[in-house]
Fold these 4 entries.
Entry 1:
Amino acid sequence: MSTPEFKQRIGIYPSIEPEQFKESLAGKVALVTGSGRGIGKHIAYALAKSGASVTITGRTKNQVDETTEELSKSFPSVKVIGFIGDVCKRSDLERLVEEVTTKLGPIDILINNAGTNTFMPFHITDADEWWKQMEINVKAPIELTRIVLPSMQERNSGIIIFTSSRAAGADLPWASGYSCAKTAITRFGGVLQTELNTLQEVTFGF
């Protein structure tokens, strides 16, 4: 019996190829937290390519500035703004939403992507560091959602997405804080969607 041959796939699956969504989000306003680099940056890129106005956020100014400039040059017909702030500060979240609304309009798409992880055995993890993961990965997206949601409810329209992880459903060693946080935010999103399902056209994802 011959051994099956497996070929490595390099590239994007057709169903999520950004090109097919080009201009599909024209006129929409998107806010992506933690989008100065990494996953958040690529999400923002895909949204801009789809025609949405995008806000790039983060704590590191040069990353936010570089990504904002890069997207503005790549998609000149799309409005892209940058915001420097700390998602753990309620005042920064309120200022963020106010600035986005003033410069771009009401938020149609909220991507709660900002997050952190400390890979370390629980018994040697500093208590403040452990709880900081809960604050950034759980409290921050919940509080930002609390601020943005009322406007979406008024308009009976909106999309809210939380970046989760397989850590929400697996016992990953050295990631107790991260696993607890991702489990919590996943359950929060599910409960919130259930609460609003029969009343609102506000969509949640993970």
Entry 2:
Amino acid sequence: KLDPDSVLFVYARNPSGPPMPLAVARLPASALPATVTLTDAMSMAQGPNLSSAQQVIIGARLSAHGQALPQPGDLEGSVGPIAVDRTQPISVVIDKVVGQ
């Protein structure tokens, strides 16, 4: 059962680069199941963006406290590497507990 205050973060990161996401979307957990399209406009900071990578890891994390950084007890999942120019949808299964 999801806490109504939980937040879903969907992100793309470079599989061989720093852990900072290239793009991130923040949604209420109540939006699940959700379809999310990540774009360069969702970049977190100056520097590399989504279109600068050839492949990415796509991750999704449910944060019970709404924090951008993973906290023990958050739920997460990831898939990839995925080609950035892929046009077909992918599914991310949230099946791991952070800190366990």
Entry 3:
Amino acid sequence: MKASTPINIEKLEHELQNHPDINFRSYLINGLRNGFDSMVKYDTWDTKVCKNNYSARSQSTVVSDLIKKECEKGFVYGPFQHSPFPRFRVSPLGVATGKYSDKKRLILDLSSPHNDECLSVNDMIDKSDCSMSYVKIDDAIRIISKCGRNASLSKYDISDAFKICPYKPTQWPLFCFKWKSMYYFYVRLTFGCRSSPKIFDTVSQAVCYIAEKNYKVQHILHLLDDFLTIDHPDEDGERTMAIMMTIFKRLNIPIASHKTVGPTTCLEYLGIILDSQKMETRLPDNKVQRICNFIRKILHKSSCTKRELLQLLGHLNFASRVILPGRSFVSYLINLSSCWLWHRRDDLSWKPSADE
């Protein structure tokens, strides 16, 4: 068994032949061909078998279906009656449910075990090696402002993102799980692994380089698997979209067609509506309603827990991306939350004023 990827490595290597960073080019091509190093720093580690999380144990049918799909796509190998490795790490399975979409996603909890003499997989990966800088909505705003009113916008999304990148076969034993007494292991990057975003981002960086340098796409941004292209209103947005789709097809990088949008003057990117016709950014209606409902819920209470305050803070912090005066209020809430010791206890209380 060896590392595999759907990406056409030969064509990618050809497209990157003039890339100025030889180390970057070599790292990416070698990783796709032979598997990426997960960045685990420890050569010696003990076999450990962890119990699956409750979110998985309580949704047996869901987990079985998700595992079957992962195996069919080639992301996971198994089942095996016995571990195929003499030394291995079985991490807990969990199920993450989309907060608003209810979509189920299989998670390998690589931060377990906790408070144990046996380090978790993530504990064996240095955080500093995985640090990244992410694109901000302000970056898109800056480019749209430069291009002017009615700038053409298009977005693209890579399917199964992390899982188009393989692990080194020698590191497969680190990514095992157990389900219904059978053993499985991941051979592609996993959600929940500290190093996955950093490793995968090299693919996205390569796509941006190819689009800009080889095909003269002037303005392209990405956040991991989400891409945005912006064209001057006098330029052909359809041509840019055709170029991008050709690049993805030529490299055999799978694209989520239902998330491909444009060219248009108004679309949602990173959860924010970008409108080049009105030259404004705004929150989508469903997010506005969600935030208002949560605020009303808090206002009807005479006290709240730290957990509730942090939820409110999360909503308002997101809104302040486009409502700039709200940032000072968010700063106040951050300072307030830092004084709290407990997540569940009602430590913050208030009384209605005499006029209410």
Entry 4:
Amino acid sequence: MDTRIFYSVLIATTAFFFSSTTLHATAIDQSGATEQSIFDFLQTNAIGEAQLELNLDSLLANKNSEASFPATFRFKHGKKQTVEIDTKVNVRGRYRRRLCELPPLKLRFDKSDLKTMGLSNHAGYKLVTHCTDDLASAEYLLREYVAYELYQALSPISLRAHLIKLSYINSATDKKTTSYAIIVEDTDEMAERLNGEICDNCYGLPTESFDGNNLHLHALFQYMIGNTDWSLEMNKNVKLLRMNENGLHVVVPYDFDFSGFVNAPYAVPDSKYSVKSVRERVWLGSNPDAEKWEAAKVVFQSKKKELMQKIFRCKGISTEAKLEMSNYIDSFYADLSSFFPGSVTVTAP
């Protein structure tokens, strides 16, 4: 199917979807639930489609700046009601900011709107976009979504991710573009949920300041998906939390597009490692503690079936791609029982 025809079908569907009564930031029925965030609400109500209306021309003309632009986020709630929320949008990221037709974005919802809706004041959410307007790019986004799902299956100390079909409406031209997008949980919301505190400037922390089980499991996950685009020392693509319960730090990863598991066409291996492809795995964790290493491996072995199910149940990914993704994970499991890394270990799938 021609890509443009595909998107036209999606757009027509979305137009019908939003043809109901629209209310701006109205109070919403949470069915007796305790105070939720907008993220909780989207997840628990299985909101699968939304619109984001803004001046895309202005946003993209200023994508190398930190300027923010007013926008409206809307979604259907119930049979005939569409809810609108004011938000500010800015471009984020480094590599994808330069490369993508539509780079990753940050949404900052209006807190007064959230309050009116009876929601908590967690307002800042990363939006992972489809990068380029074609089916292949949408599939790479879905692969990254699955990576988030895999880590959630392995550890509760993780960022939640919500997949939606999002229509971007350019108010400058009235043009609509529809594709998949990932909304990533607000980091303060995540810290509150896990009873910890974000440590934004915790560079070069000693190993003993971390929860050892979390440290081993996180590094093994990054190795499994073939991701070298992270660093504890520099806080690159990880959030560090100091847990209130014991004062130890834990690692929460995000941004997996440079991993071998996603295998995005623009992903290139880090030049400081002797690898020719992002598909080759590099161990970047510390020298493992034998007991905690074995405990981490037990978790991975017990979760293998669930991880494979996450891959094959994701709609929108071709059967061929799902087989390639599962084979890549299988290649990790094939060596797991005997694998014990050194300071830097490189293996090919």
